[in-house]
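Review form for a predicted model. The reviewer records the input and the model, then writes brief findings.
Reviewer: anonymous (R2)
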Amino acid sequence: MERRFVKVEKGMGPQGRIAVVRFDRGDDINALSHQAMRELRDVPRDFEDDLETSVVILTGSARAFSAGFDLKDPEGRQRDTMAIGERIHRQRLGPKMCKAWQDMEQVTVAAIEGHCIGGGAALVVALDFRTCGRSAHFRIPEVELGMNMSWGSIPRMLALMGPARTKQAVILASDRIGAAEALAWGLVETVVEDGQALPAAMAFAERIARQPPIPVRMSKTTVNRFAHALDDLGSHMDSEQNVLTGLTEDYREGTSAFREKRKPSFKGR
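Model under review:
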């Protein structure tokens, strides 16, 4: 598949052990259309047999990591006319994308500038480390749109932030989480000056790239196996829940309010 929005550059850093993946739709919004998600899902396959790369950095544009799922994507809006089974199948693209990045043997680092919203946040919590610019912010708007937070992200956020902060981030969906809060909550590990997220991620990646590759991969895999051993118990019904909430009146109200730039009025039905 030809990639329109994602570019992969390998052979960087010490002994060429660093790769940079750039997701940039050229509009400073970087929404996750189905095409963009397929491209990001497939990137980890480039590294399955790559024993030379130790670290993969994922970054967005200079002004935005991602605005999350593209509600204006024509392909995405077809879901309203699909049968339930087809909706569930289509909804699994986002979770597969995130899981593919989590399962990479290489250490993964997100370099985040600007906004990182919804599906963008779901993607970065699937990575090993996160560095962001001082003006970056995060938001998890799904609940305010009448949906559940899916893509397997809640167990990952729980591992990073703990129960209370995860509930706060997900339930208080309209609240922005600034870089300082994200650092204090454990959502990111490093905050740097604006425009320096990628250089800082590269400097961190260089430190990892100088370590012996085999035990680095083993260590990452062991930590992930323990940290995410129970993830499937908390997220195996994500797609079904998303389809179910997508059939509610509150979902129609939430998405309509978003498009009309007004506050939603939910009825619980």
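Findings: The mean pLDDT is 91.
Further findings: The chain has one domain: 6-195+230-260.
Recommendation: see findings above.
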